[in-house]
Amino acid sequence: MQEEDGKLVAINAVDNFYQSCAFIPMSFALVTTVHESGETGIGPHALLSPFSITKPYSMLLISRNNSGTAHNIRRNRKCALNYIYYDRDRLQGIANMGYPGMSLADKIKANPYTLIDSPSPERAADPDCPQIISEAFQVFECTWDDSFELHS
């Protein structure tokens, strides 16, 4: 529902409803992972946040089970969360990287950013660690921790 002239008006949900119908700010990160080919891919993700703010520190990332990001994280156990500044000129490129089922080649063509190796020598030397985005203002380089207990 959206307010119009003092009255609530229904807005139909459409694909990517949170972008087209939601009027709340939603942060996102460009998540980089390594594909089976060894190339770094980028997937825009809005459903992520700090999870454990005391030791052991952790982040929560929600991704479709069949996404390239989820597949790569399950296989390599590594990703990088790249936070970027708002840049209107790059928004279409980001949107063009976010369609489910896109090929890595199409995402690479749509990518408006520069990928670089990690400044951490051990991560830069690890073929399972993805590159990071040079234009990011902050990057969390993450490793899946199987010892972290989830309670249901």
Tell me about this structure.
By secondary structure, the chain is an alpha+beta fold. Helices cover 20% and strands 28% of the residues. The protein has five helices and ten strands; from the N terminus they run ββαββββαβααβαββ. Strands 4-3-7-10 form a four-stranded antiparallel β-sheet. A two-stranded antiparallel ribbon has the order 1-2. It has a two-stranded antiparallel ribbon with strand order 5-6. The radius of gyration is 17 Å and the shape is globular. The mean pLDDT is 85.
* Cα end-to-end separation: 33 Å
Low-pLDDT windows of residues: none
Secondary structure category: alpha+beta
**Mind telling me the C-alpha Rg?**
17 Å
Q: What is the overall number of helices?
A: 5
The overall pLDDT, averaged over residues, is: 85
- Strand content is 25-35%
Question: What is the makeup of the main sheet?
Answer: 4 strands, antiparallel
Shape: globular
Strand order within the widest sheet?
4-3-7-10
Total beta strands: 10
Order of helices and strands: EEHEEEEHEHHEHEE
Which range best describes the helical content: under 10%, 10-25%, 25-40%, 40-55%, 55-70% or over 70%? 10-25%
Task: Please sum up the structure shown.
With 152 residues, the protein is α+β, with helices and mostly antiparallel strands.
Jot down its keywords.
alpha+beta, single chain, four-stranded antiparallel β-sheet, 152 residues
List the helices and strands and how they pair.
Blueprint: E1 2-4, E2 7-9, H1 17-20, E3 29-34, E4 40-45, E5 48-52, E6 58-61, H2 68-76, E7 78-83, H3 91-96, H4 104-110, E8 115-116, H5 121-124, E9 132-133, E10 138-143
Antiparallel strand pairs: 1-2, 3-4, 3-7, 5-6, 7-10, 8-9
